[in-house]
Amino acid sequence: MTDYLIRGADVLGRGAADIAVRDGRIVEPELLDPDATEIVDAAGLVALPGLVDMHTHLREPGKEDAETVLTGSRSAAAGGFTCVHAMANTAPVADTAGVVEQVHRLGRSAGFTEVVPVGAVTIGLEGRQLAELGAMARSAARVRMFSDDGICVSDPLLMRRALEYVKTFDGIIAQHAQEPRLTEGAQMNESAVSAELGLPGWPAVAEESIIARDVLLAEHVGSRLHICHVSTAGSVDLIRWAKARGVAVTAEVTPHHLMLTDELVRTFDPVYKVNPPLRTDVDVTALRKALADGTIDVVGTDHAPHTAEHKCSEWTAAAMGMVGMESALSIVVAAMADYDFGFGDVARVMSTAPARITGASGHGSLEIGASANIVLVDPSAAHTIDPAAHATKGRNNPFAGVEVTAQVTDTFFYGHRVLAAGALTTPHPAGATWTDH
Ligand SMILES: [Zn+2]
Questions:
Q1: Mean pLDDT, rounded, for 92-119
Q2: What gap in Å lies between CA 301 and CA 321, rounded to an integer?
């Protein structure tokens, strides 16, 4: 493998330094052989630990026309992600050791990012019976996070049992908080806009009532709970309250909920149809503040590719979801521009915190001895987001045509430069052996 000296990068926004990479690890620069080292001139670029996405839909197995583990892995690398957590709503559902091992293997053979499968909480995402959580945890995929994402685990007894089960191996349940009875047939946020457009609304209380219930359950059980894609100001209040009580709850926000509002539904462009729905200005402001003050721990993309057939139809028939790994960092920087939120904070919410929560041990650090999972960012590369140029199969990116400043330029994945000056290169040469475990 090539060794690298990344020269003069602004490390975590704290000042220029060199980063040396040898045999896939970050080492002291003196340990490099000058004759066998490639120099990367990173003057003017910011170096962060490789990004970690807690919430990605890679669609394989079963929906390969929308995305595959390979195309999703390439999209991740292009967006600066060295680790992604692949949600379980595939076909078949990732609810057995066999399916999570299959996804894990596909990730390894793709070789562009670490693919960590998320196991389903219930068999078939049906909300009736717990899936084989222990077997998935003990499998080669070493699953630690479980979620029925896309669907809420609405039965409180099942949720309690799931929290109890994962506690035995320090696992975590990631909840898609959506009370199903309160959202039957819902098409957008319940608001003045939904009333005006005559679309069935999706009230904030449907999200908030599940969060309130689940933080109390997590407290009662003494287990870890993660709230996926928080979208309302009221949810933020509840999470702040739960953290003050000492409940082991973490929370996530998507780039789109930090940036877009339900006013966009007036266009009836299905690219803006998403679950949970785009909310109001008041919600967006509350989410930004919560990300800045640490109430919300992480940004997760909820990258959700769909084929044109499923996405490009009239509003009520269109699938819900947006892609976003390749625009995530640029959008987070833009959304947080009015806050005291530097690149150190970007690293915290997009790398260090998600790696800590999910136990992705090879990620989230630029310390000497850490695995060389590194992203370089040009903080002043003004450009227009162009989904047609992205590596994902999904074209349903709501930020098409938006002008942003920061741009991911390089991604080092376990020491291999999978993205070089904005262009994807080759998979990691070590194939299936690139991690420690
Ligand atoms: Zn979800």
A1: 97
A2: 11
